[in-house]
Amino acid sequence: MKTSPGYLRSSLSRMTVALAVALLSGCGKQDGPPLGTVSGYVRAEGAPVSGALVIFEPEEGRASVGRTDERGWYELRYTSIRKGAEIGRHTVRIEDTEGVSEDGQSLRIPSEYNSKSKLTAEVVKGSNKLDFDVEISKNVKKTPRPTGEG
User: What integer best gives the mean pLDDT of the chain?
Assistant: First the structure.
């Protein structure tokens, strides 16, 4: 029985896709601990904070990280292919990556939210929407906002 080259390419293509799906899904197994998905907004005195790193550090285990977009929205990733954070209590750090002075100090987010953070959050199984509203301290310089006037 003779098969056409088009049929072989189509069959190989379907097998490649099936293999890729099986490898990416781990054949139904999740490697690592159970996670809860975590997302939310970071604001400073009500205004969105863009470009900040949101880090959830569990008491034991691996940290999860997200970056805020222009709306202040973040979504945590445990690994490059797994979203979320480990179930349990976390120390939360919000690190400024855009408003930083020459000496490395944040111009928008005080140290009590990053290097000296006392923020905590409890991650539960399922979906977790956790918003953070950062209060600007007197020690942190407020950066002027563009008014759009030209």
Answer: 79
